[in-house]
Amino acid sequence: MFKIMLIEDDVTLFQEIKERLSQWSYEVYGVEDFANVMEEFAEKEPDMVIIDIQLPKFDGFHWCRMIRAHSTVPILFLSSRDHPADMVMSMQFGADDFVQKPFHFDVLIAKVQAIFRRVYNYNVDQPVMVKTWNGATIDFMKATVENEKGTMELTKNELYILKILTENKNQVVSREEMIKSLWEDERFVSDNTLTVNVNRLRKRLEKLELGDYIETKVGQGYIAKEEDK
Q1: Would you state the pLDDT for residue 228?
Q2: Where's DNA bound on this chain (predicted)?
Q3: pLDDT less than 50: residues of the chain
Q4: Alpha-carbon distance values, 190 to 34, 186, 196, 201, 214 (Å)
Q5: Which of 80, 160, 217, 220 lies 20 to 30 A from 179 at CA?
Q6: Among 57, 53, 51, 96, which Cα is nearest to 73's?
Q7: Are 119 and 156 in contact (CB under 8 A)?
């Protein structure tokens, strides 16, 4: 049974979300002290975090940064604010997806299920756990990229994007293909979300001097270049 940590201070909404998720056999935990979220996160060791932006003490962005400093667990944001910058910021801080309040519970459930399939089950159909790319080693089990410049840990979204691109190295992968692969159904994700995730991956790879190997093909998609050996 997957464990979900739901960080939501609206008691009524918390109970409704918990009840709906429990119907799908997810084990849902709340937060007792909004000033000590990290202590409760470490204690519960959830498989996913669903977090509101507006919270007591510190906002959701703060806790997302804190969680990302220690874990690559998938994070799904909830927000009643409708400014596009909130979605962009959540992705830049390492979130995997974003749900705008008010929302249909069917959409929330679909996003949760898609994230769990992507994060915890995609390796079932992919026996290759380690891949070499431009002198770097991509370890899909450890979610790392390593070369002589160092080791970079990736989030699940970043790793999966790199997986898709390197499986089609030196070929353009359309944005539509990537959205369908990542989020199962393009109706549940904005085009901007993909842009933010790819840009974040490229920025991380720059620390290993690999960022230039991920190219944007305007009007087409993205390509992972590989040098001739």
Answers
A1: 67
A2: 128-226
A3: 122-127, 185-187
A4: 30, 8, 10, 18, 21
A5: 80
A6: 96
A7: yes
CATH tag for 3-122 (out of 3.40.50.2300, 1.10.10.60, 3.50.50.60, 3.10.290.10): 3.40.50.2300
Confirm if 116 and 25 have CB atoms less than 8 A apart: no
Strand partners, 98: 77
Strand order in the sheet with 48-52: 27-29, 3-7, 48-52, 75-79, 97-100
pLDDT in tens, 142-196: 889 999 999 999 988 888 899 999 988 899 999 888 887 776 544 455 677 788 8
**How far is it, in rounded angstroms, from Cα 73 to Cα 146?**
20
Backbone angles phi, psi at 157, to 5 degrees: -65, -45
In the numeric block, the tokens 């770097």 are attached to 136
Q: Are 214 and 136 in contact (CB under 8 A)?
A: no
